[in-house]
Amino acid sequence: MICLTQILKKAWNLLWTRTGRERLVYRILSRWGDWRCGREGAGQKHFVYRRPDRIRFLYLKDNAFSKTLYCYKNWELDELRWIVRCLGGRGTFIDGGANIGLFAAFVRQQCPSTRIEAVECLPGVYETLQFVIRQLDLKDIRTHPAALSNHDDQWVKNAWVPGGEECNTTCPARAGEPDVMPTITLSRLLGDHPPAPIVIKLDLEGGEYDALQGLEEYLRKPGAEPPILLVEMYRARFQERGLNFEQWWEWFRMHAYNTYFAGGFGKGPPPGTPLDPGMEMPPVFNLAAIPSSRRAKSLW
């Protein structure tokens, strides 16, 4: 009887809770994806598929994040479309924390003329990023095996934070050590006269503030076009680094940016809602920072 009760309880949790349904969908679709890999040929571990927005992407049998994107095909779709609207088919896009290349691939297929710079600091993930770009035959995406920071030409390596949930950060290292990456600033990536408009997406597991400090040299240049920013705000990661939201808002205020809610994991205001430090926000959300010289309303 106890065994039957436990089985019924598991079935209830699986089918009638949101988390349970998502896990069930993930299991079914990821197994379907693995079967499709086998159908493509002996030893095949990937295949190209189309998302609901008709964008081509790659399913990778041995990559958990690739499986997540395949199972939840609307993953950050609003943010992706927002970036494309901001670019208007031209300009410059910097994908900071490119992971396996979803944002870079989306922008390249929607905006063929846009200059794209994809930056990824984890060596294994960077190799996968290059593989995805080759398999999708995406032209003219410049990839950088580097960590975005507030200084150029330093050496860092990945360090797992104790107790962190898949949380990673970077710590100082020396050239020649295993799995080290050089640092690079947004100012160096942009150069002197990047094609406008400029959109920068930052998803750096807590390193976003350092990356923004690396943008300041560019912003001081005469006539520099201030970029539009899409920044992942992860409260727990910032606390681990001793940061608070007031520091963020001070940076945006000093550099003449207005901030808006752009989507999140959890309950939050509608996209395009102006933000202030006292608002209740989800634990993880995307913040859009738009230069005060631009009309933000037209971007949503």
Structure in words:
- The protein is an alpha/beta fold and 300 residues long.
- The chain folds into 2 domains: 22-75, no CATH class; 76-299, Rossmann fold (3-Layer(aba) Sandwich), CATH 3.40.50.150.
- It is 37% helix and 24% strand.
- It has 11 helices and 13 strands.
- The strands form 3 sheets. A 7-stranded mixed β-sheet has the order 5-4-3-10-11-13-12, with helices on both faces.
- Strand 4 (115-120), helix 6 (123-135) and strand 5 (141-145) form a beta-alpha-beta unit.
- The CATH topology of the largest domain corresponds to Rossmann fold
Task: Give the strand order of the largest sheet, numbering strands 1, 2, ... along the chain.
Answer: 5-4-3-10-11-13-12
Major beta sheet summary: 7 strands, mixed
Give the proportion of residues in helices: 25-40%
Q: What is the CATH class name of the largest domain? A: Alpha Beta
Radius of gyration: 20 Å
The residue ranges in which pLDDT falls below 50 over 5 or more consecutive positions are: 160-168
Number of domains: 2
DSSP summary, beta strand count: 13
CATH architecture of the largest domain: 3-Layer(aba) Sandwich
Enumerate how many helices there are, as a single number. 11
